[in-house]
Amino acid sequence: MQRSAVPFLVAAVSLLGLYAAAEATGLSAAPRGYSWKRLEEVRATFLIPDGWHFKHEQKGNTLAYFITQENIVSQGRFETGLTLNVIRGLGAGRAHETARQFIASLASQNEPLQTWETGTGVLKGYGCEVRVRASGHRPAIVIHGLAIANTRTDTLYLVLFEGPEASWQLAWEKGRVILEAFALDDEI
Fold first, then answer.
1. Tally of structural domains, the chain
2. Model confidence pLDDT, tens digit, residues 4-43
């Protein structure tokens, strides 16, 4: 299993940004071709590439957010984009262990390209980039995943950016920008 400095840096920068940039008013101007999206329910902020789509839903105690190249409302699915699942108040320190297990499972069930750990303050993170083999009519995809636990509030954040392997480099140009700049409030 290779460990690359670039994804570690992306994860480390992301987590440092998570801790430091809690309020949208404290964020810098969005890069050209992107705009900020504030997720009020979880006090998080993400960049959305121009022309991409946003969707929010809740299932049980999980809040799910999607930033996608394809319109999942009309198509019912997407190929390239980011999924954020937020599960609050897991209790008894479960968020940290669940984050670790989630990334370990994602890496073990697919072809791991790299894995890493990172954290700052109460935010502890695990990450991996994996290749998911083609299956039937579905082409191979690449997933860049982060599982972040707030060890004080027992909130779990699962952040997955995915795209078809055939167009991964182009997709990752957008994904990397999104993942380098998002902000989470460490009080949630």
1. 1
2. 333 333 444 444 444 334 343 467 899 999 999 999 999 9
